[in-house]
Amino acid sequence: MGKRTASEADARHAQGVRHLKRQRIENPAERKPVNGAVSQEVTTGRQLQNALIFEQGAASNFRTGLNLLKDFLDSILYAADEHDLPGKRAILREYLESQRAKAREDKATQFLHDLIQAWEYAAETNFDALLTQIVANLALLFRVFSADPQCVEYGGLLCKAILQHSVLRRLHWSLSAMSPKETVISPILRLLTEMTKYNEGAHAKAIYLKNDFTLEPRALARNLGLWRGPKEDVAPDHRKPTVRTHTVRYLLTHLKFQDEAAKSEILSNYHVIRGIFDHLASDTPSLVLDVLDVFRDHVFADKAVQRRVKSRILVGKTLSSIASLYRYEVPEGQAEDDQRSPCVAAHKFLCLVCTSPAYGVMLPSSGYYPPAREEDDRNADLEDGTEQFVDLHFGEEAQSADGKTRNVILGEFIRSLKPYANTAQQELVLAIFKACPELVADYFAHKEAFHYDPKLTSTWIGYSSFLYQTIELPVPDHLAAKRSYRQQPPPFSALMQNILPQPLTQQALVRCLNHSSELVNFFAVRVLIVAFHKLRAILQELLSAVEARSSQLWKQTTRRILNDFCQRCPPIKAIIIASRKPTFQKDMMREAITRLWRLYYEITPQVALQEKFDVSIPLCNALAQAEMPASSPEDKAFRVMELEHWIQIARHSTAMRWWQRNKSLQYSPFTTLLRLMANSQDAELYSGVKALLVAISQEVDMLQTSTFPDALDALVASLSVPSGSSATSSHALEFVDDCCARFVRQPIKYFDDLDTLRAKDAAVASSLGPISPLLVTLIEQWPFKGGKAVKDNSAEPIAHWLSTFLFLLKLAGEDETLLSLVRQALVETSNPAHQSVLGDALMWKIGKQRAKEALKLATGADFSGSERSSISPVPQEEAEQPTNEFNTAELELPPEEDEKHSGLTRWRRKDIEESLEDGDIGALLLCLCSKYTEIRLQALANIRQLMAKINESESSDLLQLKLLLGEVLESAEPILHSRPLPYVGGVFAAHASTVLADPSHFMFGKVNEFLMKKPLWNVEHLPRYFGHEIINSKPEQDGSYHQEVDWYLDYLFDALRTSADMEIYRTRNVFEKLLSYYASGSCAISAKEKTVKLLLRAAAVGGSTTLITRCGVISWIQMRLESNDHRRQMLRLLASRVYETCDEEKVDAWSSGTAKERIALLAKVGT
Question: Are 1139 and 992 in a shared domain?
């Protein structure tokens, strides 16, 4: 038969005659999707068993059964009615039990044999739809098993069945199927994920051992690259999961549940780990968060994973992939928490792993030093150090620094970021700079130059902020040396790049200061201010190193840093010109430029003094501004800060004249500052002005400063409350201003006059106290104001001020004899109208009370109604009388109850461990012994709250404390409503809590042994029990016997506070045992002294009669004295104290009147 012609074929086709092919053996309908089946309700396990019988010729029926199983499992997982769940789970267990019985009868039959057999058939015949259904149902079964504890064993059987070699071959075939077959690959990955995490990873190790099939690297790496781009009309988390998504979740599950060896093996595969991070920016937000969380918690935070394994993960490519999440945008309509968005999570992850050597990417940093010196942290040869002291400047010399940064990966990574465009990236770079200071110089040396020319753009503003915060980073201690300063300083360029980074050239900064934009001006000033502060901090470290090492290299570096900074910062002329611009006339701007000016004078005076500048004019303007009323407290604060800056500038200026009046000021600058201090209502606001006035007055030695308050405090207080006025008198200020100016012009003359004044009383001239030399000038100038021939009303306020000033000087502690001579001189030359005022200068008058209060308020001195300061050093202190060997004041009376009861609340302010160590919990336990019922009940409630807090902490270290608190509650609660817990119990609980805080304590074992005996204490039995366990038993630790005895005696002494405690001691024969122990050879000296103190405490709480009549303490003391006891003074004191506090009638009756005589004889025994 020949071939058909084209015309025949077309004619046959036109007639609709179909060409007959070879007939298919299997039914084609079996491979069609089974979607039209009517859903049935599963009522028995037999129904599932019949529906899931697999026959090769009836695959469609089996697929219908699989759909029935899927619907049934979905109804369990997503049940609409919780009441139906137990019945459905019982049906499922019935079906699973039948399958297990079948496998038990025929050992060759696997668990769920029909499903496994159908899986193999589908894989052999490429029946992808059937294979997908089977695997999806198996994954659902694992999810159902995980939710039902009664199905755990079935999950284990299913895992064993799937991990058979024949099934694993089929599984691996599906896992490595062709890329388009996503419907085959994804179910397999879901099944493996559910198997791995099933039962908290119980079978994860078994799955890993089959890694040739389950974790084949090539298949996983290929699957990690199977991702789809986002669709505009579908939100990322609502798209169908891709093969990559399932593969990533499968690997994350292994990282969660595998041990460190398996995790290390998985992480060592570079292609797989790289595949996880390469397309991270295209993943859904939930998957991104899962990746970062798992790697953070189960890889990098896992100390069992070696550091070298972690370092292989965080290579430059990985860091860049994570950093790409900074641009991750969450689609609109998705409710993403800002704190859990991918960009925020990536930022926190990078800040964590890039700032600690424990996470692999960061190598230990040596601060400003290059890595070549990292191991040489002790002493180095000076010749090598000189060779390394190379001028590593910017530009061409920066190239010589290549390879000298140890953290190369981090250095390349941060250069790929844009800190000027993204605040989160800026925070990351700054965090890396803080952890690795060496990277600052490397960054600016290798980063493509950014011209810092002033342009008011977002990029320039962001870059300015970045430079500011980079300079603001703290200077490491010892410049990052491990123990102390090294023999050589860090490279010069590393230090300079941290002070003034490369873009901040002198030309760029000057252009910024002269720019027309206020924001640009302000940024330039801020950057310069922080650069000066950084320079000061580094210079302080360098100077400390010079003192520690005495090396010429450190001195050369110090000078060179300062000289280079002076060359790179703007000249002072540029600052002066900028300060005159209208931009810098506003309060905040003016304060900023003045602060910068001040730093020039303080840190780089060689630059500041290059231009001649009259500081008095701006200082006077600042003084005038400070006196003017402000519209807001902020404006007032800015003006005061500006004034302090000008004052400091004036101190460093050689041309400043403090005592000369200016045309714009009524008084000289010094007197104007005095008036500001006197009229100020807020002394703290002018603290800097006060320090300056003290320094200026000390320079000319005008006012004495040897007392507190000193003469300057008295002068300010005298000017603050003038007689009959609410403001400082202008006449008094003019008089003070004139006298100060005269004293400064002729100081030697007035010192001679002071010596003449001292010589008037030659008898006591050598013992005279301090005096202010300014008083001599006041004596000289007073006749011209208030003399007999002067008739002027201005003299009256001056006279009142002089009287007040002399009175305050007397209060401050100046010599009263000399002050009397000054008063006498003033009265003799005074007009009769003012003599009475000056005559009472050293006496208290009602008008001087305000001045006294002003001095007290300004200095904090307490005059206590007297005429002399109670803290003045002038009165000579009497020599202390020698104290006795034994201070009875501390021993006679027990401590009184704290009326504030701070123990109720103090424990809440700290962690439990800290409260335990600080004794706060012990103070809370002592509140159970309070005499106030409400305090005891509050303590009871607080202890319960403390126990609840311990339960929440779940700390095993606090179990003993919880046990102690529980036993205290059980012992105290029945009696607290009627009476307090005896101090014998409360003090023991407090002391025991201190012991439990330290497991190495010598009493730790015995206290725990007592707590384990019973949950309820017999409080009265405590002294006797521990007396037997400590004194009559061997110690827990070798050599701790005497420590235990001392602890026991301290406890007895602290617990003996009331007569009720004394009664407990009496009934338990505590004193009899201690008196006999005192005489034994094993009693240490410290124990003997504490025993005597305990007896004195017993006498203080009303136990003297008991000690005499029941314990025979008088006879015991006599025996000890006759034995030449070294504590004779203490024993005699005890004897007299016991008899003084006893019931003398009862004791005399008991002793037949001989007790008093015996006490008198004890004074002679042993002498």
Answer: no
List pLDDT tens digits, range 805-835.
888 888 888 888 889 899 888 888 888 888 8
Within a domain: 877: no
Alpha carbons 1116 and 1104: distance in angstroms, whole number? 14
Together in a domain, 1060 and 1110 = no
Terminal Cα distance for the chain, rounded: 152
What's the domain count of the chain? 4
CB within 8 A of 450, min separation 6: which ones?
420, 463, 503
Residues 63 and 133 in one domain: yes
Distance CA 599, CA 622 (A): 18
Tell whether 843 is covered by a domain.
yes
Which long-range contacts does 657-666 make (Cβ < 8 Å, 24+ apart)? 657/616, 658/696, 659/740, 659/741, 659/744, 659/745, 660/616, 660/741, 661/737, 662/616, 662/617, 662/620, 664/617, 664/620, 664/621, 664/624, 665/620, 665/623, 665/624, 666/730
- Name the least confident of 447-451, 453-457, 885-889: 885-889
Distance CA 1078, CA 1087 (A): 8
- Mapped onto helix, strand or coil, the DSSP state of residue 1104 is helix
Backbone CA torsion sign across 1122, 1126, 1132, 1138: negative
Cβ atoms < 10 Å from Cβ of 279:
17
Domain that holds residue 783: 701-859
* Ramachandran area for residue 962 (φ above 0: left; ψ -120 to 50: alpha; else beta): alpha
Return the ∠ at Cα 758 (arms to 755 and 760), rounded to 5°: 115
Q: What is the dihedral of CA 396, 399, 401, 405, to 10 degrees?
A: 140
Give a yes or no: residue 565 inside a domain. Answer: no
pLDDT at 176: 86
Shared domain check, 45 and 158: yes
Measured between alpha carbons, how far is 467 from 504 in angstroms, rounded to an integer?
9
Question: Whole-angstrom Cα distance, residue 698 to residue 676?
Answer: 19
DSSP state for residue 107 in the 8-state scheme: T
> Looking at the domain assignment, is residue 1090 inside a domain?
no
Domain-ending residue, one of 172, 197, 215: 215
User: Cβ–Cβ contacts within 10 Å for residue 86, how many?
Assistant: 10
Q: Concatenated DSSP letters for 803-830?
A: HHHHHHHHHHT--HHHHHHHHHHHHHTS
In terms of domains, do 811 and 920 share one? no
The pLDDT value recorded for residue 683 is 62
- Alpha-carbon distance of 592 to 642, in angstroms, equals 8
Query: What is the C-alpha to C-alpha distance for residues 709 and 712, in angstroms, rounded to an integer?
Result: 8
Compute how many other C-beta atoms are within 10 angstroms of the C-beta atom of residue 883: 7
Residue 791, Cβ density class (10 Å: 0-12 exposed, 13-18 middle, ≥19 buried): exposed
At position 956, the amino acid (one-letter code) is S
Alpha-helical segments (H) within 550-632: 552-568, 572-579, 587-603, 605-608, 616-627
In angstroms, what CA-CA distances link 603 with 540, 558, 591, 600, 616?
11, 13, 18, 6, 21
Question: What pLDDT was estimated at residue 863?
Answer: 59
Kindly state whether residues 908 and 784 are assigned to the same domain: no
Residues 294 and 250: beta-carbon distance below 8 Å: no
Q: pLDDT digit string (tens) for 271-311?
A: 899 999 988 888 888 999 999 999 999 999 888 889 889 88
Query: Rounded to whole angstroms, how far apart are CA atoms 201 and 262?
Result: 13
The count of other CB atoms within 10 Å of the CB of residue 1106 is: 20
917 and 1053 within one domain: yes
- Integer CA distances (angstroms), 1016 to 81, 415, 1061, in order: 50, 68, 19
Q: pLDDT tens digits for 27-43?
A: 554 555 555 444 578 88
User: At residue 47, what is the residue type?
Assistant: Q
Are 170 and 123 contacting, i.e. CB atoms less than 8 angstroms apart? yes
Are 910 and 939 in the same domain?
Answer: yes
Rounded Cα–Cα distance for residues 685 and 677 (Å)? 10
**Among 833, 859, 885, where does a domain finish?**
859
- Are the CB atoms for 64 and 34 separated by under 8 Å? yes
Six token digits for residue 392 = 């590593």
Backbone angles phi, psi at 1054, to 5 degrees: -70, -30
